[in-house]
Amino acid sequence: MDGGWRLTGIGKLLLFVVGLCVLSYAGWQTRDRWQAPADNSSSSSRPAPRTSARPEEPASSPSNASSPSSSSGSGAVLGNMRSAGIMRVGMEPDAPPLHYLNDKHQEEGFDFRIAGEIAKRLDVAKVQIVEADYEKLPELVRDGKVDLLMGGYVPDASIKGVEWSQGYLDFGLCMIVAEGNAWQITQPADLSGKTVAIYDDPAAERWVKANIPNVTIRKFSGDDGWFEAVEKGQAAALIYDYPFAATEIKKHPRTVIVKHNLNASKYAVGVPARNYDLIYEVNKALDDIKGSDQYGTLMREYLTSTSEVFMKPVEGKKSYVVKPGDTLSLIAQKNLGDTERWQDIWKLNTDRVANPNLIYPKLVLLMP
Q: Residue 84 belongs to what H/E stretch?
């Protein structure tokens, strides 16, 4: 036997096992690491049934760090968010009333505030907004650069790599005309054979083609054009998502909304595919948010708009003029003797007001 040291068979086996343990530990240590956000991101800390709006808030005059792991595998995103304490949300950079910078250059908007409420319920301390153009947001989800996407998206099976939550905002398309035409053009049928403006949105285009015969459609995109087409007489009406119309119409006082809820749709939250635990937790959070008084408050803060068309007396029909402090439930109690009959009132007025939470003083409601 020479003087060198030699491993026995058992010794080799023990060394192999120790090596595996060291490699496994190193891999576990790196699994939850995360990268810094892209340069174009910004950070901030900021009714029965629950999935239906419940009008329990009073009518009021309208008021005007680091990021988690990019892994989007099954079950990875929720754990990474909680570990890092940050929820990255993809949103458009300038899309009032959903997300925008206010006069103090602070992030604001309905989606921004809802994102904060979701984060609280997911036990995540901070929200980080990652901005991108509307059509690029799903790509951020697929690439693991954001954990959630919010930005006026309706669930769409054609968008690959994204799972959708239940709706967090019920809305409908609305019909907008020039102020001088508000008494002549009141129904979609009045637009037959005419030109209609839309934002370049497939859902709006499908609705117009299905509901207005012999129509000519003018599509617009970018920063302006659709309201201007109505103001200049280039289109007889604009068919547009109410949430965006609620804000943009304030800059176009010569236009008015003459009909609400042309269809029924809902905005949803997108998450990376196969993250079923995250979808479950987001849906649970949305149930809680929509069942809270704060939800109606946020709707009124960001989505209220008024229309002179619906402040005029309605001949030959029983009606009620909304007063400050009114809710549909209070109106039902005072006039029908039962708070639950707010739903009967709402059914008669879906084309006159965008949402049960958005009634406003001087609005004329039709009554059962």
A: helix 76-84
